[in-house]
Amino acid sequence: MQFPPATPVPPSPPLRWGIAGPGEIADTFASAVLKWGTQKITAVGSRSAQRAANFATRHGIEQHWGSYRELCESSVVDAVYISNHIDGHLELAQVALDAGKHALVEKPLHYSAQAARSVLAHAKQHQLLMTEAMWTRYLPQSSVLRTIIQSADFGTPEHLVATFAVDNRHIDRLWRPGTGSITYDMGIYPIALAYEVFGAPSRIDALGSVTEGGIDEAATVKLSYPSGATATLVISGIATHPCTATISGQHQTITLEHPFFVPTTMQLATKGLYADTMSWADDTSIKGHEGLYYQAEWFGHYVAQGMTESPVHTHEEILSNLEAAEEIVRLVGGSVRPGHRTAARPTSL
């Protein structure tokens, strides 16, 4: 047994990034990109001019506007990182694309795969790169994992168990009536990992619970695939369990340690009760959500190559994962329904 090397980030000309929606995740993204990467952040936009100005001051950004549209139409911006509320993702992405800007949109891209499909098609039609910010795809461990599960030594993947269960009752946005959803916010990580291993499921079964307001708060999910493979996902915003993921192949297993969706260690093992194991660890000093920087670097490379979608997180996968999330919410009785949701606040551009 041995671990293959991680795929290095290829050098590419830096893009000039605009930040749309200067909230907590945008703060983390900007800090990581400016600390570790070669990309440039040249502007920030918000519905609040003061919030944009404060964000610009914190990160040393020259341009700031109290308008998303002005940001997208700015001549100092090549690509827009969209991190406003999920309700406004697609509308803002459309504005960015119409202004000729590439778009990296926070996950989930939207609640509705149907709505997302038309905007992704619009990006491809205009030869612009648009993808969902599934940042785990670009971590070094992910390239190592992909190589292993495709190897003859590992054998065909047969089963996956992935857990994202953390008591997040203190995070208000997760429980907001009409827009809150643990499946879409937290569950999208194990859903995406299962797709990376097996592709789109042919059947989805789920049991779970919802709040009095109808927000899905927990789900235990079984995904079935045409090959006979299965995946078991445990998703909860109430319970707390180790957030690990294990993939069992014909000959070996591999486990991503807690939390599996950030830079972490992996254990490769033979099958059996008393298995031989070996460990892999990221040898960089990049920890936690500083790993967001990788997706910006790869995004810059894809733009330089003229790509319109990420080869490791394709449009097809984005849509499949949204369809899976929608079905899980439906099965557990949640109230987030693409096309049938309660009225949400409009996005002021």
TrEMBL record:
Gfo/Idh/MocA-like oxidoreductase N-terminal domain span: 15-130
Domain of life, source organism: Bacteria
Pfam (any one): GFO_IDH_MocA
Keyword set includes Oxidoreductase: yes
GO MF annotation: an example: oxidoreductase activity
Keyword terms, alphabetized: NAD, Oxidoreductase
Domain GFO/IDH/MocA-like oxidoreductase positions: 145-254
UniProt KW NAD keyword: yes
Gene3D superfamilies membership: Dihydrodipicolinate Reductase, domain 2, NAD(P)-binding Rossmann-like Domain
Family: Belongs to the Gfo/Idh/MocA family.
Protein name (Swiss-Prot/TrEMBL): Dehydrogenase
